[in-house]
Queue: 2 jobs
Job 1
Amino acid sequence: MIDLHRRRLLAASGNIILLAGLGRAHDVWAQPRLEGYPYTLGVAAGDPQPDGFVIWTRLCPKPLEEAGGMPPRAAIVRWEVAEDERFSNLARAGEAIARPELAHAVHVEVDGLKPGRRYWYRFTMAGADASPTGTARTAPPADADSARLRLGVAGCQNYESGYFDAFGHLSREDDLDAVFHYGDYIYEATARRPVGTADEHGRIRARAHLGQELYSLDQYRRQYALYKSDSDLQAAHAAAAFIVSFDDHEVDNNWAADKDQDGTPAEIFALRRTAALQAWYEHMPVRRAQFPRNGQLQLYRRLDYGRLMRLHLLDTRSYRDDQLCSPRDKGPCRTQDRQDGTLLGTQQEAWLARGMEGGRRWNLIAQQVMMMPMARTGPDGRRTSSTDTWNGYPAARRRLIEAIEARGLTNVVIASGDAHHHYAGVVPARDEEPDGRAAATEFLATSISSEGDGTADMTLSAQLLRDNPNLKLHNQQRGYQLFDVTPAEWRTTLKVMDKVTTPGGQISTLKSFVVEPHQALMHEV
Ligand code: FE
Ligand code: CA
């Protein structure tokens, strides 16, 4: 009914009012006059469906000032979605309200579009230049046997660690259907050393956050404004729809459900998490299903690309048991001894298992932290694993492997991040047999900037490869990955930056791996 009504409105007039279902505010500013260009943070699209996607912007004439330089009034913004870059054939158009409660962010769930097609979108207001133009592609029809799909994978963009040129390069990749962002979109903490100096690991502080560690809603908002002022990040958003997640640094390093890493009482940490997740929602191109409520939000969700691929986006933060040896105990922890523990929570685990029965050619589990077994031998000869990844929750990993095997699936690919290096490897069916049969393949994408320039010297990885026979590649540079998916093969390409601590870094292809859907194996091509 609503859709029909909207179509009639659209047909009747080029100047219609679609308020995106949000209702009228009492004091809506129909002809806003702003002190400066409103779209300093760019535009974004997200979560493609066959009939549309989300489009996003935030009115923010003075990004680093209080309230982004906006007066405390709701304002009307017009939006347009066109079949061509010059906006001569409008497909949909309407108006939305940018509200001060949401930092004047606008999320429009555009529908009524054709499947499997590229569109262009922009925002306009009276008395101001139009926003930059973004482009996004709708997903193919639900029953389509699509021939191809191309996804970018990126995340971990510490502003202080380097420049975002990798995002500029990603924006120029051909034919992107979407970008999966695995999280660490902002970092909450600020380095204490001067810009231009290095820490004890040789990591240079390339740029400076504005203040100290984030706790309040306004501080988180200003951090998003700082990051989103970056032209390379804006270019990546303008080039393709993003399918966004969050990891720990959108809130606090290594948070776990209602616990932070410092042992803060849960009800006090909840205040910080509530502020952080509101700011995340405000700045991400997500649907109303992800609107925060009571300090939580529904991050995990599914997106289908016809019959070719089902993307299961997980939330490995909000429902997990606390990390072993937390807080602040740096001693060795035998994660393999942990017989229980959940990373996804019972409900999400069941949701994921059910969803893999969809009969798609590929199942992509798009999530945050490393799933494959990974141990490092320390100088004392002791083998340790991260307690923050699936390695800290081996029982949860075992249950997921059982769910994959019970359904006879050989087509599960894991995308992850968080580790700031590229890793390609397999998740073995049994932890004790890392070179045995595999249950899934995993591609962990390195960071955009976090940890700085890194090194192209891959001989440093030899020990790690020896220690972990399920690991096929490890590289310590910055960059991103590309997934080229067809019914016959999954091809992952690892891209690396020569430098990020000064602007103008160049991208190159490190390696490509191919997976076939009938066996969880990868080979280099
Ligand atoms: Fe990170
Ligand atoms: Ca992380």
Note: The chain is about 15% helix and 25% strand.
Job 2
Amino acid sequence: MKWGLIGASTIAEQFMIDAIESQQGNKVAAVLSGDAERGQAFANKNGIGRSTTDIDELLGDQSIGAVYISTTNEKHYPQAIKSLAAGKHVMCEKPLAMHIEDACEMVSAATRANVVFATNHHLRNAGSHLKIKELIAEGRVGEVQAIRVGHAVYLPPHLHGWRINNPQAGGGVIPDIVVHDADTVRFHLEEDPVDVVAIERSESLGKNVEDSVMSIWQMPSGILVETHEGFTVRHAGTSYEVHGTEGSIFARGIMTQQPVGEILLRRENQTEVQQFSGHNLYHRAMRLFMEAIKKGKSPSATGTDGIKSLAVALAVKEAATSGQRVKVNYGGT
Ligand code: NDP
């Protein structure tokens, strides 16, 4: 199948062109950029046949069966709606949209068009996170009581653009990272946060957007989730802890794009290192996306998963700005 890239982005260049083309018979055929010169340079550098600045031209190409949308966040919604109307399968970057109603409309449009619509939440594809899900499901920690997510990192300088200064483009650490943490916790616990409290800060990088946030979420079962997301923390590394009545999982370095990190399971006085698969996260997401098209299976993260992660992030933002405890609005999903 031929693919169109909507957005000449860093993530497309670093991970997704490779992931798409890792699937047999798949090839990126065209790229859309807002800037003709940049688009052409991107196409040349990445072995893509052609570039365009006209989305209708790209979507009018009947040989293109699917698109990958990785523009800045405010563009995902209009570009996805157009792509779905043109009958393309869509792999869309997170956050799906700026507003929950728009994300819901994207998922409805995909259903009407009878195409696959997926959200690119990579973490649930990691061997580490699959292992944690397995440990929880096998009861190795007993009844889960709490999860703590440490996802405060230093944003690499080459990404110090719209993410740290442009709220209209969806900048800020909440739309960027809270969505991933929400998806990961939902994936492990198979339940959706009910309400949240949060405090945000613009410490050093953020101009008109937050660059740090801490929040607490309550799950329907009563489990508490505590998260810390940041763009300014240089030395912490990432962490993910699951605490239960029979044991605790301590994972480090697993909130990342690479298949790395370590997981320890502590029960009574014993600590066991857990082994996990080192496969490429994005390759797995694309494999499941292709299976969804060919075999009618579910992609790794569906559009509904994207609605839900966005809903949690929007609730965290509202809680942080209002100082109130906020009920998560899933838009009826
Ligand atoms: P980039 O800033 O690299 O790209 C976003 C847009 O900015 C591009 O579409 C491009 O516009 C423009 N742009 C890129 N580089 C330049 C440049 N050098 N000069 C001028 N304009 C430029 O963003 P990311 O790749 O980091 O993120 C894109 C999307 O992907 C976001 O929605 C983000 O949330 C998501 N993302 C997801 C990840 C995941 O693992 N799931 C990881 C990283 C990002 P144009 O297309 O018009 O040329």
Note: The chain is about 35% helix and 25% strand.
